[in-house]
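agent> step 3/5: call structure_predict on target 'Phage tail protein' (Flavobacterium johnsoniae).
agent> reason: downstream docking stage needs a structural representation; sequence fetched in step 2, passing through unchanged.
tool.input:
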Amino acid sequence: MSFLAKLQIDGEEFNVLDFNIKFWQKIDGLNKPVGNAKGGTIKISIEASQSTSFLSWMLSGDLTKSGKIIFYRRDAMSKMRELTFDKAYCISYNEEFKSTTQTPMLISMELTAKELVFGDANFSKKWISLN
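tool.output (status=ok):
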């Protein structure tokens, strides 16, 4: 079964070409979890557009955004799953052009968010406010 994913942010929608999110826990010598879950960094690649708003977001250093990634079943265009993120920083930005591929301009980013909701799973980072 094939899927389709869309990034919705700042009132715009972008086609998601690649997505990755990872969580982990430290373990002791017996492979038993110790401590709280870590991670939640979102790695995402989207089709580039005329906008440079993602680059501006990354370069700002202190700008946070909220948005969501919706995963659809391609056969019926029904929503399969949704990831929402709140107070996210763009911590990595890469733009690539290759004239010989199906998607010649590609933006890849890494986002870290204070709050994530992925389906019925919630993840919150305990950031200390510096303001």
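agent> step 4/5: record observation. The chain has a mean pLDDT of 92.
agent> proceeding.
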